[in-house]
TrEMBL record:
The lineage of its organism: Bacteria, Pseudomonadati, Pseudomonadota, Alphaproteobacteria, Rhodobacterales. The keyword Magnesium applies. InterPro entries: D-mannonate_dehydratase-like, DgoD-like, Enolase-like_C_sf, Enolase-like_N, Enolase_C-like, Mandel_Rmase/mucon_lact_enz_CS, Mandelate_racemase_C, Mandelate_racemase_N_dom. It comes from Aliiruegeria lutimaris. GO terms for biological process: amino acid catabolic process; carbohydrate catabolic process. Keywords: Magnesium, Metal-binding. Residues 128-262 form the Mandelate racemase/muconate lactonizing enzyme C-terminal domain. It comes from the Bacteria. GO terms for molecular function: magnesium ion binding; mannonate dehydratase activity. This is D-mannonate dehydratase. SUPFAM superfamilies: Enolase C-terminal domain-like (SSF51604), Enolase N-terminal domain-like (SSF54826). Belongs to the mandelate racemase/muconate lactonizing enzyme family. GalD subfamily.
Length: 408
């Protein structure tokens, strides 16, 4: 069996999805996702200029060897652009394998460990009152877990995942059109004075059963993070996300010494080498990698297995920028993983997105149910894809009030 051709598409409704389609001499094709949010053209160029010309003629069933060929063969290892490109190839090869076997991918991993996978939604508000309305909306929709972010009184601008004005409380997306980023101003002192009390009021209003998550988005130093974690401990958070910039794998020691708040980290990681110390030293409780830019199913499965040895559960990244293909790969891992924790899932669910990526994966009552179709269980309509083109966009950047650059 041989790979005969492969194509890359960049574009989509509201988001620039990077979609890879690998064709074979047996008519079976595979689909993969290389969407690296706001840098989408780069994995696409790597695929087109180097990886696809090498793929042609290879046996698509040898997904492990093909992964090793590209990873080891590049000499310069890792990095989100390369890992997203390998990730797309890997997903597409698993898709082909599933279709050849006539089985959904979760069956090839070891079958289902659960029926539905718990997901969390994003509640947001320009202020706490707005946020309470947003949480109430998701609870009414049947969500059992909600991530909560709100505007901080006196903060010079809105900060991460928070709208500028009241009333924009559903699926608020923090990306901005254009190459030049919007600038947000951040003040740690105002945040740490306000947020613990706000979280306590949310717990009081919604009672003990709601799983409450909060994302610090890399803004605190290790000492501040330890202090913050201690302050929010009575709230009983499901997790505290990205309290510190995650490239320092030792930063969480101080937090661990001072608090038992569950910690989730890893959406910016792209390899096992970015999180092996965090996992082996049991400094985190949830690993947040995404199948898309952490090298695909082959590599992420290794991370999940390492995590399982150390009581670390999965909480895969699923921001609105994730393509239904990457989310499907995660849905299959979520169905199988013995150490599954939760899935971030932003239901953009527009008719345009469903038309581009037809699938039978579905969401009910805050749970995600995986499709039983062979392979990934998502198709790609090339006719629909022709309607979209790449539109540059950018994450905001963050500065302190005196102009110093900070972490978005
Ligand atoms: C999350 C993330 C995102 C990121 C975005 C960057 O928890 O979902 O923090 O909102 O900011 O994915 O591309
Ligand atoms: Mg996050």
């Amino acid at each position: 069996m041989k790979i005969t051709d492969a194509k890359v598409f960049v574009g989509g409704p509201a988001k620039n999805y990077v979609t890879l389609k690998i064709m074979t001499d047996q008519g079976v094709y595979g689909l993969g996702d290389a969407t690296l949010n706001n840098r989408e053209t780069l994995p696409a160029a790597y695929l087109r200029d180097y990886l696809i010309p090498n793929l042609i003629g290879m046996d698509p069933r040898n997904s492990e060897d093909i992964w090793q060929f590209f990873y080891r063969g590049a000499y310069f290892r890792r990095g989100p652009i390369a890992m997203a490109a390998y990730g797309a190839i890997d997903m597409a090869l698993w898709d082909i394998k599933g279709k050849l076997a006539g089985m959904p991918l979760y069956q090839l991993f070891g079958g289902k460990s659960r029926d539905g996978a718990l997901v969390y939604a994003h509640a947001t508000g320009a202020d706490l009152e707005d946020l309470m309305d947003s949480i109430a909306y998701y609870v009414e929709q049947g969500y059992k877990a909600v991530r909560v972010q709100c505007g901080i009184p006196g903060m010079p601008t809105a900060s991460y995942a928070v709208p500028e004005e009241k009333g924009h409380t559903r699926n608020y997306i923090t990306d901005y059109t254009g190459i030049r980023p919007k600038v947000e101003i951040w003040d740690t002192d105002r945040y740490r004075r306000y947020m613990p009390e706000a979280l306590a009021r949310i717990r009081e209003r919604f009672g003990p059963d709601l799983k409450i998550l909060h994302d610090v988005h890399h803004r605190l130093t290790p000492r501040e993070a330890a202090e913050f974690a201690k302050a929010v401990e009575p709230v009983g958070l499901f997790w505290l996300e990205d309290p510190t910039p995650a490239e320092d794998q030792d930063a969480l020691r101080l937090l661990r010494q001072h608090s038992t708040v569950p910690v989730a980290i890893g959406e910016v990681f792209n390899s096992i080498w970015d999180c092996n110390k965090l996992i082996e030293n049991e400094l985190i409780d949830f690993i947040r990698v995404a199948v898309t830019y952490a090298g695909g199913i082959t590599h992420v499965k290794r991370i999940v297995d390492l995590a399982g040895l150390h009581h670390v559960r999965t909480g895969f990244h699923g921001a609105p920028s994730h393509s239904p293909l990457g989310m499907a790969a995660q849905a299959h891992l979520n169905a199988w993983a013995p150490n599954f924790g939760i899935q971030e899932y932003l239901v953009l669910g527009t008719p345009e997105c469903d038309a581009l990526f037809p699938s039978e994966h579905n969401m009910r009552n805050g749970m995600m149910y995986v499709s039983d179709a062979p392979g990934l269980g998502v198709d790609f309509d090339e006719g629909e894809a022709g309607r979209y083109e790449y539109k540059p966009a950018s994450h905001p950047v963050v500065r302190l009030e005196d102009g110093t650059m900070w972490n978005y």
